[in-house]
Amino acid sequence: MIDQVFALGGELTVRRLGYGTAQLTGPGYWGPRGDARDAVAVLRRAVARGVTLIDTADNYGPSLAEELVAEALRPGPPGVVVATKGGVVRTSERAWHVDGRPERLRAMCEASLRRLRRDTIDLYQLHRLDPAVPLAEQLGALQELRAEGKIRHIGLDTVTAEQLSAALELADIASVQNRYHLLDRSSEPLLKLCEARGIAFLPWFPLGNGALTADPVCASVAAAHGATPGQVALAWLLHHSPVLCPTPGTGSLAHLEENLDAAALRLAPEELSRLDALGA
Questions:
Q1: Cα–Cα distances in Å, from 22 out to 160, 205, 267?
Q2: C-beta atoms surrounding 10 within 10 Å
Q3: Cα gap 156→122, rounded to integer Å
Q4: With 0-12 CB in 10 A as exposed, 13-18 as middle and 19+ as buried, what is 177?
Q5: Coil, strand, or helix at residue 187?
Q6: Given 29, 60, 124, 180, the catalytic residue
Q7: Is 124 in the active site?
Q8: Which pTM does this prediction carry?
């Protein structure tokens, strides 16, 4: 039996299958996707279905996704953990740059607090490491914010196992986010390190950005369960490692229901072996 929950940072218990907000914004994560009321309805339905981990970022929109989260969670259902990210500056649909200077990270975090209407951000993730700024300075800024009670836990996005090891020498790291799914296991060494250290791994593009729907093995396993390939892909993640906490995003209520139903899918050892082989 797979464990459906994970203790983020050792103390924030969340359901492992969460919800990501990127798809609530327009193409390229720029501008609105549609009517804000529809986005708020999706977020509220996710929480009603038991989602307790919501992942967002200041540059989704930009700013828009955080504002939608704040509106949907008002007045604040207990037990919902909100994760956001900072460190990337968007200037257009296709233009962005990394900025890890301590003063900019502080300004970004405080702006996220205002948009989210919160006193503390449960999980604040460095969206990218800035190669122009020493890692100790970037993490030092986040540690200062944590000491001030503005963030509870620190996470990293798009790192190698070696970079995570270096970061752990400087700060407590509660989570990482990297691309990882059935057909892309390039971050397997990072996953193993997360398992050893009890660090949550939030895989982005957990559904392979649509690529998994065409895979015949995935489709065959799905047919045997009366499920969809996407549900099989999410269920495989939940079976594969106890630290994997996928947060698939969607702007559709029907797709949300489909994704969340994946938590109930139980894959047989033979099916898991066939799916594991896809990453060879």
A1: 23, 11, 28
A2: 11
A3: 14
A4: buried
A5: coil
A6: 60
A7: no
A8: 0.96
